[in-house]
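pasting for ref
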Amino acid sequence: MPEIVKKRIVELIRNHNWLQRMNNNDMSAQEAALIFRNTGDIVIAEIFAHADLKGVDEKFYREFAPSIAIRLPQVQAALNEYYSTGNLNFTSRVGNSDAIPKVSYQGKEYRVIDLSRLSGEQLSAIFGPSVKNVSDLRFLFHVGNIKVLDWLSKAFNPSSLCATINSPYNLIGFNDSRVGIWLDAPNVNMLNASRFNQGSGFKKGMNDIVNLVFSEDTRRHREFPKNIFMKSLKTKSEYKNLPDSAYSEIYLQLMYKNSLADITDIKLSDGTVIKADDIRESYRAIENVLLYEEDKSGLDQNNEVNIYSPQIKGVILKLDMSKAKGETQEERFASALTQLHSSRLETERLSQTLQYAQEHGLPIVIIDTSAKSDKPADTSNNGKQAPTPSAPETTKPAGVAFQSEMGTVEVRPLKFG
């Protein structure tokens, strides 16, 4: 059974007593909505509530069953709010692991995706037909101890982690680390996003996770992708009068899509048909702002996305492959890794991540930092560039809040997420 399926089952069962907890003020409607966030989960929640009450005795059930009719609408209202600002994740995913080249290093075999060496045909074989160039790739990049992250990603440990969206031409990450972990999560688990480092910190208990989505203080980050998506969509005449409330319908029809290639035309309840190409362009607009909008803060900050219960998909190494020596892939791989030996911290991280990748059969992606480029053309949509909404000119001293089109943004120094 896939870990993500196991985790969902465990999460539902562990929270079978949600009604009791809400009645005792130990759980908010927002927390319950986050737990029962997948479509159909609220039906399971209702079944759990009836079963728990009947499990005591019939008198107990008659006394407390009316509270189900009170609490369920509260949870549904919070779910509606969650969907109305839902975040999307169509970053790159491996479609065929057998197509990944195998490389021997120090007596062990690794699956290595060296982006400096692979052709467009090879990239398509690994990531799917929508990836034809290196510039089509996007990764969720996290800096941290992979053993700790492995523990957090298990079914019994609900957690939230921050990451940066990286492309091969935009590599700003937390503290510019060259060794990172490739994360992934379904759309429904994406909590928020910001062009700048949110300063969300290390520890995120359930209350912190709920606040990332529902708190007025951080709501602007939750709404950030939605605002860009809708603004991009409305640049087309056929959607210019589309209300922002339509986003909920759009999101619910995209929620279980795994890639941009899976997207088809969407028909809304009012009869409006939104074309698949227009959806893809609007999603790319979100990524373009996160990756390429000019940073006028003076801090050259990374973007930040927060993810609920992420999964480890591989290892990402940012190396200058122009300095790699040797003819064979094995020689170049070994040579490139020596770049990390100047830092004790990165040497330790490298050792841990290589071991983890080898033991779990996960890919190692090498992003070539010498492959400098201006903003790459978006070739995932028949060569058409997604429109990129931009914020107005703003002068912002470091360390203070500033007002932009997307709301008040607090500028903070770089730090680990």
